[in-house]
């Protein structure tokens, strides 16, 4: 097949990712020189989980300031729960932003095969989009790691109010580009969210597993194998 549109997951497809909210918070707190209790991560997660419906609503505002305000308030609650000064909340959050959106980062790293493959697809006139289970910060993260210029659209699930493998999230991209499932090719690393989600929509798909020693349909071990993966659906 020659797809009109190729959609990419982001985490561990385009960017190597080491991010969990509670471990990230502890790492940033340590970078700030705070003395944290052994259960600091558990405290953070316990405070965050009940706020997730609110976080979804915040992301649908598509406002970076609203996104930042949510996380600063979360840091304030976390510091308060550990009986540490809340006055440091903004500074601590900004350490996190620098870690996420500035290079070098120990949280995200772009894979070496990404840019050459994106450049090749664009030269052929293929439309490209990121379709990722992510929050509003996906746009800043993509920009920071040099991805934004290659993509015609970037879709973050929390902004759209629906996540892979729900077909509604794939439909967002189909509607935006005015294409049918058979005209799209999806690439991602998650067997449920990406592989099953795309297959349930009738979208041709490749599952990327960079550790695969002998990749075979539907698995690729590098984005450089995409042309071969397209041929699976001829």
Q: How many β-strands, per DSSP?
A: 8
Q: How many alpha or pi helices?
A: 11
- CA-CA gap between termini: 5 Å
Per CATH, what is the topology of the largest domain? Rossmann fold
Q: Give the % helix.
A: 40-55%
Order of helices and strands: EEHHHHHEHEHEHHEHEEH
Strand order of the largest sheet: 5-4-1-6-7-8
Which CATH C-level class of the largest domain is it? Alpha Beta
Strand content: 5-15%
Structural Rg: 19 Å
CATH superfamily of the largest domain: HAD superfamily/HAD-like
The main β sheet shows up as: 6 strands, parallel
* Uncertain stretches: none
General form: elongated
Structural class: alpha/beta
How many domains? The number is 2
Mean pLDDT across the residues is: 97
CATH architecture of the largest domain: 3-Layer(aba) Sandwich
Structural commentary:
The mean pLDDT is 97. The protein has 234 residues and is an alpha/beta fold. It has helices at residues 21-31, 40-48, 52-59, 64-81, 89-101, 114-123, 138-144, 157-160, 167-177, 191-201, 226-231; strands at 5-8, 15-17, 108-110, 127-132, 153-156, 184-188, 205-208, 219-220. It has 2 domains: 5-17 and 110-231, 3-Layer(aba) Sandwich (Rossmann fold), CATH 3.40.50; 21-101. The strands form 2 sheets. The protein has a 6-stranded parallel β-sheet with strand order 5-4-1-6-7-8, with helices on both faces. Strands 2-3 form a two-stranded antiparallel sheet. Helices cover 46% and strands 13% of the residues. It is built from 11 helices and 8 strands.
Helix and strand arrangement:
Elements: E1 5-8, E2 15-17, H1 21-31, H2 40-48, H3 52-59, H4 64-81, H5 89-101, E3 108-110, H6 114-123, E4 127-132, H7 138-144, E5 153-156, H8 157-160, H9 167-177, E6 184-188, H10 191-201, E7 205-208, E8 219-220, H11 226-231
Parallel strand pairs: 1-4, 1-6, 4-5, 6-7, 7-8
Antiparallel strand pairs: 2-3
């Amino acid at each position: 097949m020659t797809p009109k549109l190729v959609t990419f997951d982001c985490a561990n497809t385009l960017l190597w990712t080491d991010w969990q909210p509670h471990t990230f918070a502890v790492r940033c707190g340590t970078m700030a020189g705070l003395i944290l209790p052994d259960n600091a991560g558990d405290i953070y997660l316990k405070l965050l989980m009940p706020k997730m419906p609110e976080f979804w609503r915040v992301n649908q505002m598509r406002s970076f300031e609203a996104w930042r305000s949510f996380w600063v308030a979360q840091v304030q609650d976390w510091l308060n729960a550990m009986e540490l000064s809340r006055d440091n909340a903004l500074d601590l959050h900004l350490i996190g932003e620098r870690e996420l959106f500035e290079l070098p980062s120990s949280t995200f790293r772009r894979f070496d095969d990404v840019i050459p493959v994106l450049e090749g697809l664009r030269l052929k006139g293929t439309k490209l989009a990121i379709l990722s289970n992510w929050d509003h910060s996906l746009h800043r993260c993509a920009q920071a790691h040099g991805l934004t210029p290659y993509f015609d659209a970037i879709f973050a699930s929390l902004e759209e109010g629906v996540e892979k493998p729900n077909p509604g999230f794939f439909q967002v991209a189909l509607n935006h580009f005015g294409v049918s499932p058979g005209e799209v090719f999806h690439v991602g690393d998650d067997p449920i969210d990406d592989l099953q989600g795309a297959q349930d929509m009738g979208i041709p798909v490749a599952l990327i597993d960079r550790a695969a020693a002998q990749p075979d349909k539907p698995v690729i071990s590098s984005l450089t194998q995409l042309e071969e993966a397209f041929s699976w659906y001829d």
